[in-house]
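Listing S7. Sequence submitted for prediction.
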Amino acid sequence: MPQIVLVYPQIPPNTGNVARTCAATDTELHLVGPLGFEISDRYLKRAGLDYWPYVKFNYHHNLEDFQSYHQERGGRLIGFSKRGEINYTKFQYQTNDWLLFGSETNGLPQDVLDYCTETLYIPMTQPKVRSLNLSVSAALGLFEARRQLGYLS
C-alpha cells in the first residue's frame, strides 16, 4: 500500500490531519525532520484527535535517515510539487509507492525532488493561488493512488 511522507512539515494541525487520514486508511505515515514543532505538540495531538494509536507512524530525524530507511524497504519515491511533471490523476501508482509532500511554506526542496522517481502536480485553475493545504494535497494524492489500486471498495 502507498505510504505518506511529510518532509519538514511546519504546522502541527496539518500534520495531525494527515495522521488522521492515515489512520482512517491504514496508511503508514513518515515524518522527516527537522519539524517545525515538537512531536508532543498539543495542536498536533488535537488535530489527530484520539486516532494516534491507529497511525503506523515513523519519525526520521533527517533526510539522510529517511533515505537509508527507504533504500532498505524499496519502492518508488513520488514527489508532489507545483513544479511536478505529471498530473497526479494521469500517473500510474504502484502498491509500494512513497508519496512525498513538502513543508507548507516551501514545498519539497529541489534536492528531494531530484531524488524522486517521478514528480506530480495537482492542477489548480486559479493562477494566483500558490498551493493547496498540505493535508488536502496528501489526501488527494493518497486517495487517487488508493482508487487506482482498488483500495476504495
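Caption to Listing S7: primary sequence and predicted C-alpha cells for the chain studied. The first strand starts at residue 3 and ends at 7. Residues 3-149 form a domain with the Alpha/beta knot fold (CATH 3.40.1280.10).
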